[in-house]
Amino acid sequence: MSDPETTPGTAAHQKIDTSVPHSARIWNYWLGGKDNYPVDEEAGDAYTGVFPGIVTIARSSRAFLQRNITYLVAEAGIRQFLDIGTGLPTADNTHEVAQRIAPESRIVYVDNDPMILAHARALLYSTPEGATAYVDSNVLDPERVLAAATATLDFSRPTALILSNILGHIADHDEARSIVTRLMDALPSGSYLSINDGSRGVDPEFEHAQDGYNKSGAVPYNLRTADEITSFFDGLELLEPGVVSVTQWRPDADAPDAPVIAEHGGLARKP
């Protein structure tokens, strides 16, 4: 097992604040992970008290991403991944799913949280044939992200860009679309874009809970309509079934019928 490369930046010099809840740690708690603190568990429990379905959304989002990556590696032949807004490592991270199928796969994770940086070297181990790297950067600076990722990825080869539950942190929709466009413009034909995000227009209870969370002083997460999420794929070739509730995106053949939930996603190819 080879060590991951870590590109230190601003997060490397920040202290981990355990006195206030953190969205990545709360998400980790909902996924069943252990990398969280009592304050995160309290915030997570308070949220589930209002909307218990958030645990289903978190875990369905993760399962959607795993199905995306499996398709990309096993059927589309992708061997390079740029995963921005990684979050805390849990089970079946991007490199684990990809390298299980193709050990030579190369993955760059991007985040700017000091706790995630601390866990990257300890947990994100690659196969000897492939590579994992961690870039300490922010999705709001796509040019810096891309420049740092070139140390591990060859952008003359098709690459999958993963934006899982990250674009909701960008309040302005036009800015979010611009960032997606700038990132995809750097990738060659045959590359892919995978996006999933919390959505409006499906579950009023979820919207009420999220709006309340956003007003609590925590870092807000902005829900978007399915049409707004679909607009991130403009100019690309959406794979069937398009942008749908994540439970409806190519579910496993033996999976029971899953309900539509307020988390939409899709996968598209750059022509």
TrEMBL record:
Keywords, sorted A to Z: Methyltransferase, Transferase
Protein name in UniProt: SAM-dependent methyltransferase
MF (Gene Ontology): methyltransferase activity
Signal peptide segment: none
GO biological process: methylation
Organism: Streptomyces chlorus
Protein origin, superkingdom: Bacteria
Gene3D superfamilies the UniProt entry points to: Vaccinia Virus protein VP39
